[in-house]
């Protein structure tokens, strides 16, 4: 699989089959991902990979919290701004509509949406999960470094025929995660990542992308090429 195919085929998969991911595959992916870029090569990511009995126990404990309808853990960072402006607000809304429409959930059906969302804490049935932490004393540029690392992991997983789903949702059950992982002091849980082989029977709608001229500005002689490229409908699915 070449890099373009890996990028275009990567998506958030939300149902996995019951098939173990070989440890040597995970090790190969994470060893290669260690070459992801970071400012001054500080490599701010701290990853914990969980499989087998520890992952089963984590899912069990998280499931109990979901069933109890108790409060979430206090947030250590905000996932989204409280008042999201255009066009980001519309893009997020469109994603939610497409995601739940594929599952046959009507707009406004809060209970059904919550049931679907609760699958986050079962890792969507995935047999492996990665939890990525960052030192709380680091700054926004280092959070960006962690994002580049996670993207590298996801693309390498595609190269191995695997899929993934990054989940900031785990941050609201961070104390439950810590019970299993015992992360060192001073770390903030950024996200989890479910890893496994896709269950191809799960319905989904592949979310599109904004036209290139909405998100990219070319300065110089390439501007005319951009205008022509923006008319190519195939760009919407990159």
Automatic annotation (TrEMBL):
InterPro entries: Nitroreductase (IPR029479), Nitroreductase-like (IPR000415), Nitroreductase/BluB (IPR050627). Gene3D superfamilies: NADH Oxidase. Residues 7-197 form the Nitroreductase domain. It comes from the Bacteria. CDD domains: PnbA_NfnB-like. Keywords: Flavoprotein, FMN, Oxidoreductase. This is Nitroreductase. It comes from Rhizobium mayense.
């Amino acid at each position: 699989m070449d890099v373009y195919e890996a990028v275009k085929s990567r998506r958030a998969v939300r149902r996995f089959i019951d098939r173990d991911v070989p440890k040597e595959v995970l090790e190969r992916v994470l060893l290669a991902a260690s070459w992801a870029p970071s400012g001054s090569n500080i490599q701010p990511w701290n990853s914990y990979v969980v499989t087998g009995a520890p992952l089963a126990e984590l899912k069990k404990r998280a499931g109990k919290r979901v069933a109890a309808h108790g409060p979430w853990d206090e947030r250590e960072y905000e996932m989204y701004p409280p008042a999201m402006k255009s066009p980001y607000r519309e893009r997020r809304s469109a994603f939610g509509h497409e995601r739940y429409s594929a599952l046959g959930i009507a707009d406004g059906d809060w209970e059904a949406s919550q049931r679907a969302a609760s699958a986050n804490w079962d890792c969507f049935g995935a047999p492996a999960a990665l939890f990525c932490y960052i030192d709380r004393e680091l700054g926004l540029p280092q959070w960006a470094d962690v994002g580049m690392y996670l993207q590298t992991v996801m693309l390498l997983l595609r190269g191995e025929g695997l899929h993934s789903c990054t989940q900031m949702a785990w941050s609201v059950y961070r104390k439950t995660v810590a019970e299993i992982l015992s992360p060192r002091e001073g770390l903030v849980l950024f996200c989890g990542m479910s890893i496994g082989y896709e269950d191809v029977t799960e319905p989904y709608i592949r979310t599109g992308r904004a036209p290139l001229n909405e998100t990219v500005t070319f300065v110089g002689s390439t501007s005319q090429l951009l205008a022509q490229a923006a008319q190519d409908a195939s760009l919407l699915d990159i």
